[in-house]
Specification:
Mean pLDDT: 96
Order of helices and strands: EHEHEEEHEHEHEEEEHEHHHHHHH
Shape: globular
Number of strands: 12
Radius of gyration: 19 Å
Distance between the termini: 48 Å
Strand order of the largest sheet: 5-2-1-6-7-8-11-12
Oligomer: single chain
Largest sheet: 8 strands, mixed
Low-confidence stretches: none
Strand content: 5-15%
């Protein structure tokens, strides 16, 4: 039974799911994990979801005082290594951890840090949420894909699926979570990064031929890379599928990386293009488009770090 839940990361993704879980479990059993600075800021500035103020139970990990049944991590990759050691008061042998971070690296870090916990693999897609300061706006909530590392239809998977249903959170447990994660990673490396460089929302990304042709070329490099890495079933059908998904989202909606660039924040390029390029060199897979795009984003990030 999932009774006590903690969520770290009250951003464009986390706020939506925090609201859903809070409504189902109540604030007494739903903890939004923060540090002291964020705790004070959220209480002062408040949090608004589609214009409506939402109140949450903000807590430092040590204030929770016990292991939780479910820990959802919805921060950016940039913050994960610093966050992981602070989470130990929340984690026991029965704690289920689900990372919703972009990329394909966070689960391995969590498994290494907390071998006693039950780490599931997952991600979010088809979400058009944007965050500006303390205000989150969205038209489409998206869907959480999750599963066991070995794709077993375990009791934990069934329990979490029932919990998400009860919260009104759309979710899916696919036959192969790794194939689906790589398909989303294909999106992270391609449309997220291209949108940030071109300053383009979802509409222009799929409707401007010059932009979409670049996105397609990068997607094909990721498919080749994933296939060489042993991912089964990753093929060009996912290109058409994700083009349809992004065509259905708000035309002016923005990827998380575009939001980071516009806000002057360092992006997740290290875990997108740079990670893929390194893997390509290790596996002997050429990734020329990915490498060039990663270098451009590295330059953009360097400028932001200096300002």
């Amino acid at each position: 039974m999932i009774r006590d839940v903690a969520l770290a990361g009250l951003g464009a993704v986390g706020a939506i799911y925090a609201s859903r879980m809070d409504a189902y479990l109540t604030s007494e059993h739903t903890y939004i994990i923060v540090d002291e600075v964020r705790k004070n800021r959220y209480r002062k500035d408040r949090v608004f979801l589609n214009g409506e103020e939402r109140t949450f139970n903000f807590a430092l990990p040590e204030e929770v005082g016990k292991p939780v049944d479910l820990l959802i991590i919805a921060t950016k990759n940039n913050h994960l290594e610093q966050l992981i050691p602070t989470l130990s008061p929340l984690i026991g042998k029965n704690t289920v951890i689900l990372s919703l971070l972009n990329g394909i690296a966070s689960e391995k870090l969590l498994e290494k840090a907390y071998p006693e916990a039950h780490v599931l693999y997952g991600f979010v897609t088809a979400l058009d949420s944007t965050k500006l300061n303390n205000r989150i706006e969205y038209a489409t909530e998206g869907i959480i894909y999750f599963g066991e590392k070995n794709n077993e239809k375990s009791n934990t998977v069934q329990l979490l699926s029932s919990f998400f249903d009860a919260c009104g959170i759309a979710s899916d447990n696919p036959e192969d979570i790794h194939t689906q994660m790589w398909a989303k990673y294909m999106v992270n490396v391609s449309i997220n990064t291209v949108s940030a460089v071109c300053r383009a929302g979802y509409g222009p990304c799929v409707s401007v031929p010059a932009i979409w042709s670049l996105i397609e070329a990068i997607m094909r490099e990721v498919i080749t890379l994933g296939t060489r890495a042993g991912i089964r079933g990753l093929d060009e059908t996912f290109i058409a599928r994700y083009k349809e998904i992004f065509s259905s989202l708000t035309e002016n909606g923005k990827t998380s990386m575009l939001q980071d660039v516009e806000a002057g924040r360092v992006s997740e390029n290290r875990w997108f293009c740079m990670f893929a390029g390194t893997m390509g060199r290790e596996l002997g897979v050429p990734t020329p488009h990915i490498d060039m795009l990663g270098q451009i984003m590295e330059g953009i990030d360097a400028v932001h770090e200096r300002s």
